[in-house]
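[job 0412] stage=fold_complex status=start
inputs:
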Amino acid sequence: MQEILRLIIAKGLRTEPAPEPDPALLATTRRLGEEVRRCFNGALTIRHVDAGSCNGCELEIHAVNNPFYNLEGLGIRFVASPRHADVLLVTGPVSRHMEEALRRTYEATPDPKLVVALGDCGCTGGVFGESYASCGRVSNVIPVDVAVPGCPPSPLAIMRGILTAIAIGR
Amino acid sequence: MNPETLTIGLNPLPGAIPAWHGETYALKWDQTAQRVRGHGGFLVSVWGSDDSDRGQGCAMHVAYAASGALACLSLPLGQHRTYPDLSPVYPAAVRMQRAVKDLLGLQASGSRDTRPWLRHGAWAAGEAPLRKDYAIDGAGTRRSEPYAFVPVSGDGVHEIPVGPVHAGTIEPGHFRFHAVGERILRLEARLGYTHKGVEKLLETCTLDSGARLAGRISGDSTVAYTWAYSMAVEGVSRIEPPARAIWLRALLLERERIANHLGDLGALGNDAGFAFGLTQFSLLKEDMLRVNESLFGHRYLMDVVIPGGVRGDLRAGDIDRLRREADTLGRAIAALRAIYDEHAGLQDRFIKAGIVTPGLALTLGLWGLAGRASGMAWDARVDLPCRPYDELSVRAAVRRNGDVAARVNVRFDEVFESLRITRLLLDGLPGTAICTPPGQAPDRAFGVGMVEGWRGPVFIALHTGAANRIHRLHPHDPSWQNWPVLEHAVMGNIVPDFPLINKSFNLAYSGHDL
Ligand code: SF4
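[job 0412] stage=fold_complex status=done
writing structure:
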């Protein structure tokens, strides 16, 4: 126990400043109503959906929760069910085998909802493109509000994307 | 096993690892499998190809590993659509053969499990996307077909379907549990959700451009895949990268191993209710990723290994920085290991959870990290070493208990071994050149690549086409062998322990579904 406490104290607080929202990432001109933004009040819940990624983007989603980035410290939490989520964070080109699951997840997410497409694959289909097995970009399957490029996008880019989604309409 | 004992004419393949290749005929196909198994060899991969664009029919191919060499056999099928079933000899062949059926329409004769595996209905049962006459943008059917899970009935048995969208940030797959109370009677996995046509797409690539895609087959193993890919390309092109490039590749592969093990060790602590572990290990991992970014330009080292060598070199100052990093990491991980070892609550969850006995591991062909935790000592860096591993005397980490604790211990042991190797590599980094461009490869050549990724051996089989193009490329993730074993590992455990046991294997979805 002593050693655990020693390490916690020795490491100290490592969290770095969060990035600013970036309107250039907006894939939509949709605006959230003032009332809704007041409800979110900067805090929101995210459901991640891997729609067919190579798992590189997932590594960076894990990273945003490490103490350096500490997304939860901003009041933004990952939740276990789309029914509890405000934002869907979708990675990968959408494989045809995930098309239906993604649609259903989208439908299960209560309104108002935001969708952030993550990574070159989510934005454009990336290296996998469209084929007999891939629907390509996320917006080919569900409406997308914010698209974050990168292969994979850095943790800061992911955070910026999420913060941009919340700031829609500001 | 000497290739001669296969009693088939095999020719040595040029390349970085000892490998042989030859053609065979149907009668010998399963006989050879028995012979290899009899000599203690194991199945690496089964794949098919459509060679109709070169005036032939389809063909089946298999790779075995035994006694320090790879033996690859091709079975031309002519106009036939069936070939002898290998699964009675190697149970791990079942799913590989089902995938061949889905993608090429070739059927293992007499095999009992005829359900589709990678095909969920995006294309129809009669269609075969890897046939040359199937367009890559084929319309398919886009229907999702029901899957016949093996039914389990009995008093008090209930079924729990999980996925493909999971509660945590992991890749998509479906798990069907049958449980009595909370005890797992049976688990059946259904994979293929992330199938995105990688193999078909590779056939539109040149040997050069394919490298980028190869590095995205399984993002967490990008170094292993790009190295195995490059090894295959260099083999068919008959070139050898400069020594410095090979040393740097090993450095990158060990960094990939350490980073993934750190991530898993943290996550395993977290899954057992010890969030402190996740915090500490993810700090160490993030520090490493940042060093990767600053020295190699990518946090996960994508696109750093290329056919012919590597992109990006180390300067003297960088080498010192990596030495210091290795020292710091070594101390930090030793401290955390002591905490894990002494934490009663943690060990209580780890010990005896998700056991795979050495006997079962041998029967089912478990390998890689999970295999070594169940007494399967094989490690490509030791048993099929390419340069520079042949000079590093790598010690494989082996445990025999086969439980979560053993898989945790193998990870710890491997991290320390990787740090030791890292120091050797930094001390001995030879030469100055970092790339020998491969030039043009001959048409209809066959080459292989294999390296020990952090999960286990990653294998690439490459059949070249004209004009430096890929005729057929088959990437094989070690998870193919290990997924079915996970289903055994969880039997008799409680459902809430599944995430922990699953994480202790941490198998690939994308790398498997292709
Ligand atoms: S964007 Fe890159 S890292 Fe993300 S899923 Fe696509 S290939 Fe993988």
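[job 0412] summary: The pocket of iron/sulfur cluster is lined by residues A 53-54, 56-57, 91-92, 119-121, 126-127, 151-152; B 216, 219 (CB under 6 Å).
[job 0412] exit 0
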